[in-house]
Amino acid sequence: MNYNWDWGVFFKSTGVGQEIYLDWFVSGLGWTIAVALVAWIIALILGAVLGVMRTVPNRLVAGIATAYVELFRNVPLLVQLFIWYFLVPDYLPEGLQTWFKQDLSPATSAYVSVVVCLGLFTAARVCEQVRTGIQALPRGQAYAGLAVGFNLVQVYRHVLLPQAFRIIIPPLTSEFLNVFKNSSVASLIGLMELLAQTRQTAEFSANIFEAFTLATLIYFVLNMSLMVFMGWVERRVRVPGLMVGGK
Amino acid sequence: MSAFLEFDQVSHAYSQQTVVDTMSFTLVEGEIGCLLGSSGCGKTTVLRCLAGFEPIRAGSIRLAGQTLSLPGHQVPAHARQIGMVFQDYALFPHLTVGDNVAFGLRRWSRAERLRRVASLLDLVGLAGLARSYPHELSGGQQQRVALARALAPRPRLLLLDEPFSNLDVDLRSRLSAEVRAILKQENTTAILVTHDQHEAFAMADRVGVMQAGRLLQWAAPYTLYHQPASRFVADFIGQGVFLPGVVTGPACIETEIGEFCGAVPVPFDVGQRVEVLLRPDDVQHDDASSRKAVVESKVFRGSEFHYTLALPSGRRVLAEVPSHHDHPVGEPIGIRLEMDHLIAFPAH
């Protein structure tokens, strides 16, 4: 294969203003992080609520959460994104529709769509982990909370969730990484996140291999850092003996 | 003394399976009650009904005059002021011992809370361990923390579900005596559930024997042992054998070991065939006695021998004999009955 590797390409001018190609990657990384973090916050909050809903002794409440999970887990992420970006805006109330289609810049409306899509999609997966975390706890834990006078909400808040979240940190970590990786679908609706900038660099400079190598490296380093961070969190909050319980 | 806890005609069922069947008992304030039965007899379900974890199908549960449970209506568990100690302790592993004990005291002022926690940890003999985590404690210590946590909010009633079953035998008997002392000191009304009758006798003022969802007898341990209301209770409580006999008088029964007259009349007609309960302590070793039984096996218990003796008819009786009477297996020894009153049931 005759390919002339040129690692200097990233410092070359893009021909657009004063920018060099590296600037595009930095900007792309910025969008990737902005998408993933906000989507993750939505997923964590909504997923915790749904996970709790699936474990409460009320069929209707549990049923709603189950339906949510089935719906969002069984439709491909890309399909969901197109629905959020192309279809949903048309069915918004008049005011919201104008705001979304005209007042927001194209980049912002793409950003809003992808954050909502990824947040709701990941929430279904977080929900399942929260549910299994709660169900892994011995039943006596909830009873013990009730017996000292805590109501159900307080039992969840002070007894079940603090333990459940500790148990599910490892699977949650991999979900957290997935959000970053899945955020690349945003490139398909024109959001200039890391993957979109990579492709643009490849097209502009014709240095395809360098561009994708750098992108791979950035995703890798990003996810490794997140894993190290989550590992640190896990050790910080660890309660020895908690993982061996379960009945 | 009026009843503090009234468990009145209560039934409970899981779908079609009746687990508690029209059960009634009462408890006076400050008393410790015990439900005794083999596993699956419904005793734990009774506790869960009391705690408010299970609805009842029929009857009512009242505590200090307040109705807690009726069919279709119940005061929620957290509003009952009923504490519970669980079989597996159910300590909160993410909280320190001190926080576990303080868990039910969130409405108390900080100073009062700290005082209560310190005094309880002192009471259960764990002073100084407030900052430890449950996993750092031994089983017995965890059990004490569970007790302190349940007692902390001064519950109106304390429920103990097989509280010592995870502990070794020595610790079990020591702790059951200790827990009784602690409950009495706090004047806590309590209900204990166990399958271990030594534990029941050591801890409770009133013991109920349960079988298949029914309460067969609810009485003081002494009464239960010496005046069992049914053959099942007689069989279940303590050791003993049934020996066939014939009623020969108002309080007399003739058996193959001889005629015996108790102090209390037996409710049978003269000539009726009955079975007499013989406890190991009813059968005395007496070298002078002409009644002989052959030592079939023996268990050395330190202070006494536990003999299984074969009568001439081949029936076996048990005897507890002071351990200096050491007889080899196969030797005939003299025996004599020594009973206050006779316990007999119609022969079947």
From TrEMBL, chain A:
TM regions (residue ranges): 29-53, 60-87, 107-128, 208-233
Gene3D superfamilies: MetI-like
UniProt keywords, alphabetically: Cell membrane, Membrane, Transmembrane, Transmembrane helix, Transport
A GO cellular component annotation in the UniProt record: ATP-binding cassette (ABC) transporter complex
GO terms assigned for molecular function: transmembrane transporter activity
Record flagged with keyword 4Fe-4S: no
InterPro entries (UniProt xref): AA_ABC_transptr_permease_3TM, ArtM/GltK/GlnP/TcyL/YhdX-like, MetI-like, MetI-like_sf
GO biological process annotation, one example: amino acid transport
Compartment(s): Cell inner membrane; Cell membrane
Main location group: membrane
Keyword Cytoplasm annotated: no
Topology with respect to the bilayer: Multi-pass membrane protein
Domain ABC transmembrane type-1: 29-230
Entry's family note: Belongs to the binding-protein-dependent transport system permease family. HisMQ subfamily.
Name this polypeptide is given: L-glutamate ABC transporter membrane protein
UniProt organism field: Gulbenkiania indica
Lineage: Bacteria, Pseudomonadati, Pseudomonadota, Betaproteobacteria, Neisseriales
TrEMBL record, chain B:
Organism: Gulbenkiania mobilis
Keyword presence, Repressor: no
Protein name according to UniProt: Iron(III) transport system ATP-binding protein
Alphabetical keyword list: ATP-binding, Cell inner membrane, Cell membrane, Membrane, Nucleotide-binding, Translocase, Transport
Signal peptide as annotated in the record: none
Species lineage: Bacteria, Pseudomonadati, Pseudomonadota, Betaproteobacteria, Neisseriales
Stretches that traverse the bilayer: none
InterPro entries the UniProt entry points to: AAA+_ATPase, ABC_SmlMolc_Importer, ABC_transporter-like_ATP-bd, ABC_transporter-like_CS, Mo/tungstate-bd_C_term_dom, P-loop_NTPase, Transp-assoc_OB_typ2
GO molecular function: ATP binding
ABC transporter domain mapped to chain residues: 5-237
SUPFAM superfamilies: MOP-like, P-loop containing nucleoside triphosphate hydrolases
SMART domains, sorted: AAA (SM00382)
Pfam family, one: TOBE_2
